[in-house]
Every structure is written in structure tokens, then in C-alpha cells.
Predict the 3D structure of the following.
Amino acid sequence: MKFLRRLALPGLFWLFVAYMFLPLAVMAAMGFRDSNFVAFPIQAWTTQWYREVLFDRDILASLWLSAQVALLSTTISILVGLPVAFLTARTSGLLRGALVALVVLPAFLPVVVSAIALRIFIGRIGLETGMLAIAFGHAVASMPFVVVMVLTRLNSMGQNMADAARNLGADDLIVLFRIVLPYLSPALLGAFMFCMLLSFEDFVRSFFLGGFEQTFPVLLFSRLRFGFDPGLAAISTIILIVTTGFGLYAERFIRSRRLGRDTSLSATGKTND
Amino acid sequence: MTRLLISLRRFALYRGLLELYGRSPLLRLILVAIIPVLWIGATNITPLFQMVEISFYDRYPVPQGEPIEWTGRHYATFFERPLYITAFLRSFIFASLATIVTLIVVFPVAYYISKAAPKNMRTRLLLLVVAPFWVSEIIRSFAWIVMLANRGAVNSFFSLIGMPGTPFDLLYNNVSLTIGVVYLTSLYMLLPLYAALEKIDDNLLEAAANLGAPAWQRFFRVVLPLSREGIVAGCTLVFLLVIGLYAMPQLLGGPSNTLFASTIGQIFSKAGDSWPLGSAFSIILTGSALAYVGLFVALFQRKRRGRAA
Amino acid sequence: MSYKPSRRQVLRGAGTAGLATLAAPGIIRSAFAQTNELNIWAYDGFVTDEFRRRFEEETGIRTNIRLVTDQGEQFNLMAAENGNYSADIVTCAGHRFYQFVDAGFLAPIDRSRLENWNLIEEEYADASWVSRAGERWGVPLVVVSTGLLYNTEEFEKPTSWDVMFDEANAGRTAYQIQDFFQIVMNYLGYDGSAASYGNNVDVAQRAVDATRDFLIDHKHMVRRYYEAATEIQQMMVTGDVSLAQAGSGPSSQLILEGFPAGYTIPREGGLAYAYGFNITNNAPNMANAYAFLNALLGDAENGAEIVRSTGLSATIKGTEALLTDQEKEALSLDPDERARLSWVNVETAAFIFDLVDTAAEEIRAA
């Protein structure tokens, strides 16, 4: 076990990190290639691609739209996914099976089909194509993931804690905010990341539900038609760096706040059931 | 938040609502159920019915002024042509194998992040591993092409160290396809596994160690059973992601790796009367995948109950 | 003619804006979109920024451009829009636009409203492939051919498609099944355009089956079936293949880049078709659409710019004079090669494409 803990596990982890990042490092290098195509060897280097994409108004506008869509769809998805998970957790047997099947259905539909179906659907309810429609489409697609993750964690939560709190005079809302949600927080963090990522890289739904303003992946695909140039590698690298930086900053911010809170209020702690 | 909720109780209206909620189980049920039922009905069921309807149309779009003709011929097409069934079965086998490979690759990673790594590093490590997924699927696919191509990074490295026989044909086969697919799916395995492993009590593992259980026994007797929920969730997510994948297999797979989702993608990608056939095939795929996963989950749950009894 | 938003559109826009104030700016703008605007779906590079700016300044018409990537995508989107098309102008390919026509998505072009029509090269302006169902459709903008792309470091200019099926080149070839299929039909002595089969389905089916079996027999030799132009460029650049059936656009981009590539039409022939803009049925901004197309035809500089950014040849007179020698060299085919191109026969296209599409699936699955 010592061997595992000290060497094998970290080894495997960093190997995995290499697997994740090596291709992207290669891509980042390709962004410096002085050519219209990406390939080895890189004979001439230039920073022109990186400079160009940073000032490309279409790209920046599409990234801004994508960011808005991602936040909005994630919010909808979690707000809807939570009650769905609570409801499902209260059922059992056949009813539960049927409910879960219905909930995860959109995730099983091939994406083209669900995109077309949603496009017809928003036409019927009179929702204009554009940001709201895309966010709605993404929320539909990512909600099953929220439910599956929350449900997984909810299953292992005992009633004892909630009951104890109720006996001490807490109402259901307090139980929800002070006990249930904190217990769910790892699952919610995971679900949040899921939804953001799913939305941020969705092409098909954004294409069908979008109007003349394009999300980033839609722009990417249309540019890709006439060649994969180093500019696309450059912008991807920039996105990677910015989002990672933002994520680390957010983590630090949340941790410092939590530290402050934990000292003033008693921690909710973990449950062992 | 708590203080806000407590101070809210000063208002009679809020108190009354709370009381009503506490007293009436029916109201409780309605409140919990209303959003889920509306949402599922509107977004999950309505579009599905739409597609089922279109799959029985003879053609779509229906030319103006002509009546709709109903037919089941699009479903019949699937069973008449062995080539579709082949691609269909290949999809299920491939998706199952890819799911298992992803589980094996990701489990140690998730375990390391959630249990073995220093506590204050865990979230940061998770963020690190999740970061690559901000880059578009299509860019990541191209990244692997640049890695594995005949004049790609790996072959360049091999020829640099003087390995004979370069360049190797690394792309467009089952291996490159699997590498690419696991690259895409690992996140969907990682997050549920992380959530499941994170809640296993460290004391439990220590206790098992103190009692002299060897590492493999602690793994199979303690870690694995306690992370079962996460494994089931992760496998479900990954499986349904792979079964619907079509851009990545198109880019990294070879001429003989056609999957059923690609077939459906092909049907929809051409202009013209393609919706009824495409919808029919999608419904066949969706139904089968749902049944397959349902069976898998049910098997797991029965096992658990069997063990508990 | 002036275009006011219809009552329904305003109501719908307002209703949705009420639903979500977050998205309000975008929605209010699109509710007023029908005043003096023009909505275009175009391929990247088909409408240059320079041309767009000039057109907007001169006419006061605001253009909204949505970049699209292929025919199926636009077709699906229009089918989903179900008659309320959000675009006034769409980009159709010559060999597939009959599907848009047959589905009732397009409005025929009234040439009397395009005074610059005579600026299109005669060869393309009155070609047979622009008519269907007794009407004329679309404004051809660029011309595309499909031929043989090869690596000049490894091959002398091939004269026949034989090289694609030579055992010595196994694992170094790639093609798009659907496009290559008709070429192979010609290569095997059948009629890829199916024009000579009339409507005799049996004869055509036999030809298609034989071609399909030939391609399945040679499946072990192909490295990859590709879909998008980008893929074949990437495979050539990274050395994964050295012979491919490819379009003239991606090929000339590679050549212009200085990559050791050549493009030819072997003696068994190649295909040609045009990409152009079409006006949608009941387009909300019909007059603006005509104004735009007219301006486009009268602008050879924009034509040359399209050629540069896409690698495709333009149909507008005077375009060629604006290109550099190097650009001409990469783009032009010699007269012999030009003569080997066959244009898509729109009348029989529907019938042969159905057979080919099915055969392509069978080859993929084999």
C-alpha cells in the first residue's frame, strides 16, 4: 500500500495528465507555426497567429456568447435537475426505473435528432432562435447528467442528519440549505463542470438553435471548412489557459472563504451512515 | 443563508406557508414534483413523440398540398439490411469495450485525486485534469491527428531517436480510435468516480489496514463496493456518450470502423428526404441503448441486494 | 418596397423578450430585423469583409451573415424552420440544389432583376445545370472540380485513375465515397452521370452494383474515407496519404501554400459543379437579396478575393485578370483537362444519387 500510495498512484496520475496535455502542448506549439496548415516539422515560427486571434472580433464575440450560454444553461440545468433528483430519490421500484429512464432519455438520443426535435419544438412554443434557445437546448441535454450525479450522492445520504436537524427546530428549507446542499456539494461541483463543458463545446444544438450570432464551436466548424490553420490551434490554447487560470483562481477564492466560515460557524462535517 | 431563512420566519406569511407545507403531504409532493414533471413532459417526451411521428412519415418535408402518407418501411429497412445490423452490433461492442477501458484508465486517477493526494491539493488536481475539456472536441481530435500522423509528433520522436521502420502507420485504426475516444470520455467517468470515492471515510481504510488486510483485499472489499454507485453512474454516462459519438470516430477511425451513430449522422448529413429514415434509426438506437443500460444497472442493483441479504 | 415587421413577428419578439430580460437586446434586434436587413447563409470566404462593408455603405442595408459548412446542414435547418426561413439567401451546390428545389425551399431567380447577369462567364450563365422544373435557379458564384490530388515528391503527374487501385499504393489513398463513386463508374466504363440510362433503373442499378463491388474489393487499399476538405489537406500535409480524390479548392490551397502537391483530371474524367447563392422561397427581404446578388456579380475584385480565400475559381468575368501568375498556375487546368470534366446532370441527379448514397453506405459497412 505504501508503494501504491507513494509511487504507483501518483505515477499513474501524472501519466494521465501527460496523456491529457501532450496533444494540447503540441497544438499550442502549432499555433506558432508560420504556415497555413498544422504539421511537423515547424520550420518557421511566428507569433502572428496568436496576435491575430486575440483581436479577431468574430472570435471574441462568439466566445462571449458561448460563455453566456454556458452560464445560463448550467443555471437552468441545476435548478431543474435538483428537484428532479429529489423527486426520483423519493420513488422506488418500477416507478423509479421509469422515471430515471424518462430523465436520461435526451442523453440517449443521437444529438442530431435531439437538435432537430428541439428546433421544431421552440418553433411551436414561439421561442426565437438565439442565446435563450441555445441555453434551453443545452439545459435539456445536460440535465440528465446533473440528475445522475446528484442521485448517486443522494442515495448514500442517510435520513439521520436531516431528522436530527428537524428535531432541533430546523424547517425544511433550512435542512435543504444547511444539510442537503452542502452534502451534495461534490456532486454539484461535478455537475456544474459537466454542464459548463457540455455547453461550451456543443456544436450541433448550437447550430440548430442559434441565429445569426454564433457560438464559438459553430464559428470554429465553419472556419474549419477551408483548412485547419494554426490560428485555430492558437485560440484553443488561449481558451485552455484562461479557463484553467480562472478555475484555479475560483478554487482559491472559495477555499479562503470556506476557511473563514468554518472557523466562525460549526462545520457541517461529513456523515457516516 | 441560514440566518436569512431564520429571520424570514418573522414574517407571518412565510410561517404560514411553511406550516401549510409541513402539514400537507399532497402539497409537498406537488411542490417537489411540479418542475420535474413539466420539464420532462415538455423537453423529453414531446420532441421524442415528434421524432416517432416523423419516423412513420413516408417522406419529410411533406411537399405542400400533398397528404401525409404513413409507413413503417423505415423500420423495416433496418432489419432487411445486414449492414445496418452489423454497424449496430459493432457500436454496442465498441461502446462497451470503450467504457471498460475508460474505467480502468480513470479509476486510479480518480482514486489518487480523491484519496491519496494531499488534501489541500485535491480540488486543484481535479481542475487540472478537467482543464483540457475546455478545448473543443474537434480541436482535440485534430490534436491527436497531429500526434499520431505519419509526420506527427510520435513518429518524429521515433525517427529522432533513430528507431528503424519509421514512420509507423498509427492513425485510422482501432487503437487510434480508442485513444481518441478515451480522451473524450474520461471526464465523464472521472467526475462521478470522484464524487463517489470522495465520500468514502478514510478511517474505514485505515481500520482495514490496521486489521491486516492486504492492499488488494482492501481495494476489492472496501473501496470497490463503496464506489459502486460512482462506477455505475460513470459507466452509464460514458456508454451513452460513446454510443452517440460520431465526429471523433469519423476523424480517427479507419475505413472499417463504421459505427451506427456515424450511419445515422451520414443519413442526416445529406440534403434531401432523410428525416424519416434517420428518426427511425435513432429510435431503434435509443431504445436499444436504454434497454442495454437499464439491464446493466438492474443487474448491479440485484447483486447489491443479494449481498446485503 | 419597404419591409415592416409583421404584427405577429413583433408580438412574438415582445413575448419572448418578456420571458427573459437577460436576452432582451438580441431579441429586440431580431424583431426589427425585417426593416432594412439582409440575412445570408454563406460559406466562410464567400462574402468578403471588404465587399460587405462597401455594400452596406452604398445601400444602407445591414447584412447578417451566418457561416455554414455544407448542404445537408442548411437543408436540415430549412426543413426545421418549416417555411419561416430566417435567411434570404442560402448557399447551394450545383449538384445537390435540386433537393432544395424539390422540397420547395427556394424561389426561382428572376434574371430581369439582375442587370449584372451578363457579367457571368457565358459557359456558366446558361449551363444546363441551373434549370429544373422549368425554372432557373441560383446565381453561380464559384466553380469546383473534383480530380486527383497527388504528392509531387512521390509521383509523376498520373494520367489515369489506375494509380488509386495499384497494389503498390495500398494504404496511401483516400477519397470521399459519394463523389468518387461517379468517377469510378466512368473509370469502369459505366455512365457516372446516368444521363444515358434515361430512367431505366435496372441498368443503372447494375452499373452501381458493379462499381460498389469493385470498391469493396479494393477496400483494403484505402487508408481512409474522408468527408471534409480539411481532412484531406491534413492527411496530405502530415504524410498519411499521397494520392486522393479531392476537390479543386483544397488542392489549390495546398499548392499555393508551397506544399509539394499537384492536381490533375486523369483521362477517365472528373466532375464539375458550381456553388452559388439561391434566394429562399418567400424570402422576407427579397428586394435586398436581389440588390446584394447584383452587386456581387458586378464586383470582380470580390470574385478574386473569394478565389484567394477558398481556392475555388470564380464565375465572374474579369476575375482571372486580378490574380497573380502564381495563383493562376495553382488554379487553372489546361484545356485537355477541362474537356474531361463532366457536369452534373440535374434531371438524372436525383435518381442516381439515391442509388449512390445507398451503395456508399454498403461500402462503408462492408
Notes: Chain A touches chain B through 94 residues (CB under 8 Å). The radius of gyration of chain A is 23 Å.
